[in-house]
Amino acid sequence: MEKQAANTVLLEDAIQRLCAHERKFDEQRLQEEQRPREEPLHKRIKRAHNVGIAEAVRRLHISENDPHKYDPQTGISLPRNQAVMTYQLEELKSTFADADPECIQACCKTYFETLRRKYNLSQPEKSQLRDAIKTGAKNRQRKRRLLDSRSKVVQTDAERELWQTATVELMSDEEDAIVDGRPVWIVRSPSHRNPQLSELCEELQRRLEADSALHYFASSAC
């Protein structure tokens, strides 16, 4: 029981952190959408190359021809990792000549942090946290699919207005469980969810299930 309780605490902590990252991402996306369309050229170039630079950093680091490898066991400020970053900066400057050097450096640091995080989670003592994060990520993916699928069956303007308040965090937690020796499907709705939104979620779910049943019978008839 103590081990199960500890796993539950780890899972809840991991989910909270994932939710925080999601909220931060949504806020950043909203800020991007609210930016004026006409921006200085260097800012547009910086954003446009960001994903491309990040991928280039990854490809350069995993290349067999590149002997310069980060050491994820140590910090970014140590000489070896600083040397690797300097090498990457010089290599990528020629490829992304019009990109902001600070953007390239930021991508290099982000990639190192990713390697270090993976290394830390790979340690035996982090197995419970690793499993909790994996479970939390799967749960969050399921919630996002649930949000997306329900969004497709919203019908009236009133429903659309209410559904605009729906987020991934407000979707129900669902999981398989064994109760009295029998497999069951447990649904836990967020306690802080608006009752009207909960009613709408139930209605949208009924529509989805009805559509699935109709599609099944139509396929069987064929």
Automatic annotation (TrEMBL):
InterPro entries, alphabetized: DUF4616
PANTHER family from the UniProt entry: SIMILAR TO RIKEN CDNA 4931414P19
Name under which the protein is recorded: Uncharacterized protein C14orf93 homolog
